[in-house]
Amino acid sequence: MAICFVGRRGRFWCTDPLARDVVRPPPNPLNQAGAPPPPTLLHAATEMATRLREKRVAKERHKIDKHGLPPGIELVEGDSLKEWTLDIRVLDANPIYRDQTYRLKFLFPESYPIEPPEVTFDEQPNRPIPMHPHIYSNGIICLDLLGSQGWSPVQSAESVCMSIQSMLTSNSKNERPPGDAEFVRGNRQRPRDIEFLYHDNTV
User: Fold this and answer.
1) Coil, strand or helix at 107
2) 168-190 tens-digit pLDDT
3) 142 a catalytic residue
4) pTM listed for this prediction
5) pLDDT digit string (tens) for 10-47?
6) How far apart are CA 98 and CA 134, in angstroms?
7) What pLDDT digit, counting tens, does each position of 37-53 carry?
8) Order of strands across the sheet with 101-107?
9) Which one of 1, 85, 101, 139 is CB 3.0 to 4.6 Å from 77, fit for a cystine?
10) CA dihedral angle for residue 85, residue 89, residue 95, residue 96, rounded to 10 degrees
């Protein structure tokens, strides 16, 4: 005995597989092979974080366009919402950095500004890596502000540049961090994944 069900638009189907000349329901396109899976909570959270980053970076860029940057800091490339490059100079008479300009590369993660940007010195022609006990020769910077513990969402690319500029200004040691050669040779981690011990804030 076949049991029939009435569907939408008056169409019907039967539970009897031997029944002939019946109209069976159209397959649900979401259940077909190859159909895109429904969005997950992780996917939604990632999209939300990306929108937050883009909104924040665009806001910082608008502020720079409107008010400019402090003396000694220049935005070189800032059209992307993921990566910027800026030049900084030390403005006082510190002989270590006199007449030098240094380039910083900013990579904004999806979690920015909740998490800090990845900031490194980028060596280019006429843009050396500055000598400093907290700056490795590959451009990685040991600065608590750039770590999860020292970072705050109220910070910005501008404030990071100012902190690094101040770090150079106050430095009196023309040297690299201890173990620089070994670190540069063996490091395979991204700067944000390195756990530095911030034991000396006097340089």
Assistant:
1) strand
2) 999 999 999 999 999 999 887 77
3) yes
4) 0.74
5) 444 444 444 444 445 555 555 555 666 666 766 666 77
6) 19
7) 666 766 666 777 789 99
8) 73-77, 83-89, 101-107, 118-121
9) 85
10) -20
